[in-house]
From TrEMBL:
UniProt-listed InterPro entries: Alpha/beta_knot_MTases, tRNA_m1G_MeTrfase_C_sf, tRNA_m1G_MeTrfase_TrmD, tRNA_m1G_MTases_N, tRNA_MeTrfase_TRMD/TRM10
NCBIfam families with a match to the protein in the record: PRK00026.1, trmD
Entry keyword set: Cytoplasm, Methyltransferase, S-adenosyl-L-methionine, Transferase, tRNA processing
PANTHER family: TRNA (GUANINE-N(1)-)-METHYLTRANSFERASE
EC category: transferase
Name of the molecule in the record: tRNA (guanine-N(1)-)-methyltransferase
GO CC terms of this entry: cytosol
UniProt superkingdom: Bacteria
Species: Candidatus Buchananbacteria bacterium RIFCSPHIGHO2_01_FULL_39_14
Length: 230
């Protein structure tokens, strides 16, 4: 069981995605727990202000340190088992790149606290309150909500029982968390007719070897195809 605590100012952003498919089942089966915390519940003033203008000037708003500190303290105070392995992670484009190797590392924790930013970023003092910073890629999103969801899904898939088919993980796209090694896959129908723009009919067929039942040949073909895709 791994617990994800997500701290956000848009708690509703997660509802629909987390209530679907693999992630939904994983929660029902109690393999993972996901708790969403509204940062505004931890603000210091009655206006529930979470952001302010940067000292020294500049564009946009900055997330304030106090409510984040309060939220993290509240979460830490609820931890019952002191031996539990916990990691506090800030989602930010300035973080360490999230890769399959990082996914496997994070899956070893009992609890991940994910801090989602918004606006122009966090007060720099928030850095001192977290264990690490993660970026899901070299592009800037409007907030850490989508990145947090990416982390939740990728890590949850590592928990035994979350991914349905028992072989799905080992055969999958990433061998040992390193390279992209997947081969092309096909399902029914064997022949698929498509009309081109000039109304010419083209038939797209499944490679013969996959229909042959010759597992040795299929394996060889897949290995060749995987290399081609690199
Ligand atoms: N917040 C905004 N952009 C992000 C990114 N690429 N990764 C993680 N957090 C972010």
């Amino acid at each position: 069981m791994i617990t994800f605590d997500l701290i956000t100012i848009f708690p509703k952003a997660f509802d629909s995605y987390l209530a679907e498919s693999i992630i939904k089942r994983a929660q029902q089966k109690k393999l993972i727990k996901i708790k969403i915390h509204n940062l505004r519940d931890y603000t210091m003033d009655k206006h529930k202000k979470v952001d302010d203008r940067p000292y020294g000037g500049g564009p946009g708003m900055i997330l304030m340190v106090e409510s984040i500190s309060k939220a993290l303290r509240a979460l830490k105070s609820k931890i019952k088992n002191q031996k539990s392995k916990i990691r506090i992670i800030m989602l930010t484009p300035a973080g360490k790149k999230f890769t399959q190797r990082e996914v496997e590392r994070l899956a070893k924790y009992n609890q991940l606290i994910l801090l989602c930013g918004r606006y122009e970023g966090f007060d720099a003092r928030v850095d001192k309150l977290v264990d690490e910073k993660i970026s899901i890629g070299d592009y800037v999103l409007s907030g850490g909500e989508l990145p947090a969801m990416v982390v939740v899904e990728a890590v949850a898939r590592q928990i035994p029982g979350v991914v349905g088919h028992k072989d799905a993980l080992s055969e999958e796209t990433f061998a040992k968390g390193l390279d992209y090694v997947e081969y092309p896959q096909y399902t029914r129908p064997e022949k698929f007719k498509v009309k081109s723009q000039k109304s010419k009919v083209k038939i797209m067929e499944v490679p013969k070897v996959l229909l042959s039942g010759n597992h040795k040949e299929i394996k060889k073909w897949r290995e060749r195809q995987s290399k081609k895709r690199k």
